[in-house]
Amino acid sequence: MTNTTAENQFYFTPRNPFWQMNREQVLLLGGGRVLLMQIAHPMVAEAVYNHSYVFKKPLLRLHRTLSLTFAIVYATKPEADVAIAEIERAHRPAVGRLADAVGKHAAGASYNARNPRQGLWVWATLVEGAMSTYERLVAPVDLTVKEAFYADSTTFAKLMGIHESLIPTSYQALVTYMQTAIDNEEIYIGEKARKLAPFVTAQSIPIVNGLSYPLFRFTVGLLPQDIRAQYGYNFGKWENKALNGFCATTRTLVSWLPSMVRYVAPYRRAMKIVDKL
After folding, report:
1. Per-domain residue ranges for the chain?
2. Under 8 Å CB-to-CB from 75, ≥6 apart: which residues?
3. What tens digit of pLDDT does each residue of 231-267 get?
């Protein structure tokens, strides 16, 4: 198999850090953090609140989101194109106006799930969330690899319809963009986000919320402190110590796991295709 052959089949390939790092099953533990960061954007929260089935079928929505995301990264180009088209169709009806002022956004401001600037925030949370969770649960990442991962991720952004002119020029620039958006209240937790939060963290389902509570507290611990405070979550010193201990133990254990357990199924499927090329 040559790199050229693989590149003809996939948007990302085995040599890409974006492919290599996102294959880690343990990154799924950061999924709740990513979702809470996404709906921290008032426009995103309003769109999800008014146009998603998250209230009725939160676990199904999470599964669908993961499936479509993994399809773009690890499926063949034709399969990835189908996933992109499905995301586009799902977002098409998600338009409207903010019911209330939130942060710097005035009541009546229009939202559109296909707006590239709103898409930029959603994409940024995926990239920063994957990197921060990887460093907490797998291994530290040096700057060269971090920037290579980021360069790969911009392909994902363009596939999602985000114009190149909006994309930060480096990973550090991305982190700066996100913090600036929080500081100037472009990103601000409103009532809709707080109502959505229990549904995206599985705390709204009586049957599973007890079992999912440790994961919920883990998610709270991973949030940036200012976002955590806006959601109204606290995180005690003993919880922070437990979180650090869990992360340290996980970093040790991950390297010993067999690939069948360590890596997500879409990656393993992709590698079978690659091996046949």
Report:
1. 3-276
2. 10, 83, 266, 270
3. 999 999 999 999 999 999 999 999 999 999 999 999 9
